[in-house]
Amino acid sequence: xxxxxxxxxxxxxxHGTGGRSRAGTVVARLRSALSTAAAREPREPRGPVRPxxxxxxxxxxxxxxxxxxxxxxxxxxxxxxxxxxxxxxxxVFALDTLSRAASGGExxxxxxxxxxxxxxxxxxxxxxxxxxxxxMVVGLFSETSGGAILVSLFTLTVHRPFRYVAWVGALTLxxxxxxxxxxxxxxxxxxxxxxxxxxxxxxxxxxxxxxRARRQLVLSLRDRAARAEAEAELRAERAQRLxxxxxAREMHDVLAHRLSLLSVHAGALEFRPDAxxxxxxxxxxxxxxxxxxxLQDLRQIIGVLRAGDEGENPERPQPTLASLDxxxxxxxxxxxxxxxxxxxxxxPPDAVPAATGRTAYRIVxxxxxxxxxxxxxxxxxxxxxxxxxxxLTVEVANTAPPxxxxxxxxxxQGLIGLRERAVxxxxxLEHGSARNGGFRLVGWLPWPA
Length: 449
Prior knowledge:
Layout: H1 9-40, H2 59-62, H3 74-98, H4 104-120, H5 128-138, H6 146-159, H7 162-182, H8 190-271, H9 277-307, H10 324-333, E1 338-343, H11 354-374, E2 380-387, E3 391-398, H12 413-424, E4 428-433, E5 439-445
Parallel strand pairs: 1-2
Antiparallel strand pairs: 2-3, 3-5, 4-5
């Protein structure tokens, strides 16, 4: 509005309903974006999930990120102690058989090697392959080390891939017949002893493969859970980023339009300081009401950002094609010559899908706002036409400004957000200079049949 036109606070208040409707759009869309981000965002940052009783699990499973050498758990100490005692027990049974077929010196050497083999089991978790190879050689000279050899094969199967187990186990089985040929068992034949040892070795390797498969299953499930949490965090960050973009786009659409109107009124007072007192008073009242409405819009947006989903949800009517007349009238009250034409092929504005109509409204709003900022005083032509199945075309064009406009901060940001909005709606947006020196903004949006 410029001073001299008979428009007062009542007119501004009447037309301010469109601004409050746009603020309601911002609040509704902002609440939806924030609720989506909050639903995907983890409630609190969590580190690796640790079991409730870690001392009951092996160290290879309980630590998600173990150090260079994982420390034994209580369960590991118990298992290692049982393995040591079991190997000693097997050695005692072997000693009873050995004492009937060997001399005292041979028995002493055998027992010493067997004790050393059993003691070596305390390092079985660190070097399983090396221990299995060393004990396989020791077993050629010591019958009392048989229990330690079986434990080392089990450890190798649990902690190393099967290719190592296959050739170590095969080499062990190949050495069994020659061993019993050189040192026959007093109670069993060579064939019976070979079958017995082969069954023991196969049983131990099979048990170790089962334990390894179970541990790998637990670790794979834990890894999938960790990756799922990481993906959830990435989705939450993406939702937050989209919410921030939505906030910036909606704040620009609402506040830029309202503040550009306020700037036009204030500029009119600046260039007409000699206007009559009543007109200046009316213009100042319009400026005050416009500033108050802009502050109300901003307060609503900030309130939603602070409160999230809590509190009331003031849903208000969102602008559609039916609101274009009110939008054009606001610009006319600000002194702009706006020619608005809507041709929907006989269809009412409500026939256009809500999302398409809202995007078309934003395109016209941005075009009028840019015309006021960059080409004040130039006539603006707005054309909206389309048919179901053909789409909806929105065109806003203005002629060249009569003079050089003042520079406006933040130019171009609204068009970037508007193009993103049009692409998200399945349409496209083009803008650029017109032949007459003005500016032209054209958008196409889908309108299903």
